[in-house]
């Protein structure tokens, strides 16, 4: 696999999308860390065993060390916290090994791997009320910001099931398939989470909260070697709600690279009042190659697919400061800048 690090960039805004002095308005405020696609416990045995990892796969300690050794107000895991499926024993045995020390500041959202075999039961068993069962979506305030955590697996309205072949079957080790819809799932207008999100946004308008951030696992826009400009239409209805209410930043995982998109509307058009999307699927599971440099969508301002690390955000009174932090022993990459709220 050929890996490409593309665009080493520091910018105050995209294409002049914001005016004023971004540094002054970003100011000081709560500092948070965000990253998804994290702790590995792979294996084909029954029960599966923990993989020691390889040079380019299953390296959760690299990012966990950054989280444990820095003082973040909140840690936002962006889904797929525990591989290959998030059963309770895996969370207690593996996730807790790396991130148990920062449990009190962890504000998680689930991904597709938390949905294996039991509708997020292991995820909820470990995090308890902090994960806000049964839906896994909630909101809170940090400084002057309103922050919204969503369960984008609900948008698919179905979860993965893990099929393990009998020991006598030597042709395959197992596969995944979709199983029953999630009770109350869906993200279309009128569905449970969509209704909740609309109420939450109405109760926290821009007149009271000049800055709003949302995070969930599946990105609307993403790029990979095999699908240069992919869109996840399952999350489009909630994205439209977020855009309509002036949300400033969306954080996602799922794609195992780092991408920062310029402000866009839900159809992918450049918009100075659009949402800036960060994809931070670089928690240590694996690298997912970006399109070749000449094929990368022009609306991506910065991207890399060779380094594990996380996004550091400072949530200021009228804007934000972002900085990519590369994990130890990973290829250097730089993306640092500021953005203003609408």
Quickly count the domains: 1
CATH superfamily: Metallo-dependent phosphatases
Share of helix, binned:
10-25%
State the strand order across the main sheet. Answer: 1-15-13-14-12-9-6-5
Short description:
With 342 residues, the chain is an alpha/beta fold.
Descriptive overview:
By secondary structure, this protein is of the alpha/beta class. It has a single domain (5-156, 184-340), classed as 4-Layer Sandwich (Purple Acid Phosphatase, chain A, domain 2). It has seven helices and 18 strands. The strands form four sheets. The protein has an eight-stranded mixed sheet, with no helix packed on it.
Please supply descriptive tags for the structure shown above.
alpha/beta, Purple Acid Phosphatase, chain A, domain 2, 342 residues, 7 helices, 6-stranded mixed beta sheet
What secondary-structure arrangement, pairings included, does this model have?
Layout: E1 5-6, E2 9-11, H1 22-26, E3 31-35, H2 60-69, E4 74-77, H3 88-99, H4 121-127, E5 138-142, E6 145-149, H5 153-156, E7 160-163, E8 175-178, H6 192-203, E9 211-215, E10 221-224, E11 227-231, H7 236-244, E12 249-252, E13 258-261, E14 276-280, E15 300-304, E16 309-315, E17 319-326, E18 335-340
Parallel strand pairs: 2-18, 3-4, 6-9, 9-12, 12-14
Antiparallel strand pairs: 1-15, 3-16, 5-6, 7-8, 10-11, 13-14, 13-15, 16-17, 17-18
Helix pairs in contact: 3-4, 6-7
């Amino acid at each position: 696999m050929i890996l490409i690090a593309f665009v080493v960039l520091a910018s105050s805004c995209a294409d002049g999308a914001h005016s004023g002095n971004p540094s002054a308005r970003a100011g000081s405020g709560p500092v948070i860390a965000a990253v998804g696609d994290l702790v590995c416990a792979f294996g084909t045995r029954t029960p599966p065993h923990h993989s020691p990892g390889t040079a380019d796969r299953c390296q959760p300690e690299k990012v966990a060390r950054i989280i444990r050794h820095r003082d973040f107000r909140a840690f936002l895991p962006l889904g797929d916290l525990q591989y290959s499926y998030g059963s309770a024993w895996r969370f207690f045995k593996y996730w807790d090994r790396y991130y148990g020390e920062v449990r009190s500041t962890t504000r998680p959202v689930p991904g597709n791997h938390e949905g294996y075999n039991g509708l997020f039961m292991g995820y909820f068993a470990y995090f308890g009320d902090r994960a806000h069962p049964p839906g896994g979506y909630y909101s809170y305030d940090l400084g002057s910001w309103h922050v919204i955590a969503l369960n984008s697996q609900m948008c698919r309205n179905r979860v993965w099931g893990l099929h393990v072949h009998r020991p006598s079957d030597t042709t395959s080790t197992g596969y995944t398939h979709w199983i029953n819809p999630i009770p109350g799932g869906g993200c279309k207008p009128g569905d449970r989470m969509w209704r909740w999100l609309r109420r939450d946004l109405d109760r926290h308008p821009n007149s009271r909260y000049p800055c709003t951030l949302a995070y969930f696992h599946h990105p609307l826009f993403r790029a990979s070697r095999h699908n240069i400009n992919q869109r996840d239409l399952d999350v489009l209805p909630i994205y439209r709600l977020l855009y309509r209410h002036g949300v400033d930043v969306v954080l996602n995982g799922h794609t195992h690279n780092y991408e920062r998109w310029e402000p866009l509307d839900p159809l992918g058009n450049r918009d100075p009042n659009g949402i800036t999307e960060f994809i931070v699927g670089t928690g240590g599971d694996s690298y997912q190659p970006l399109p070749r440099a000449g094929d990368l969508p022009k609306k991506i301002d910065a991207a890399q697919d060779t380094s594990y690390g996380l996004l550091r955000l400072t949530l200021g009174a009228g804007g934000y400061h972002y900085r990519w932090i590369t994990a130890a022993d990973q290829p250097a990459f730089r993306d640092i800048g500021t953005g203003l709220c609408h």
